[in-house]
Amino acid sequence: MRARLLALAVIALLNVQGCGEREQKLVKKAGSDTSTWSASAAANPAFKAPGWTPGDQASWEGQIRRRNQSQNDYSR
What we know:
Distance between the termini: 68 Å
Strand content: under 5%
Number of helices: 2
């Protein structure tokens, strides 16, 4: 009887502990302050897509738009 009550108390304690919510904070990671389209093509040539000119925002947005449209099943 005593072991059963102890087991129930441990289970109840674990259940209550699982209901708690930890505080969530947004932590800014150290990174580059440059914009995405101004990345150097020499930094990683594998990511250079045809039709994208490094440093040109319009060509970057056009490339992203084309990439998204090629993934759209309704436009096929």
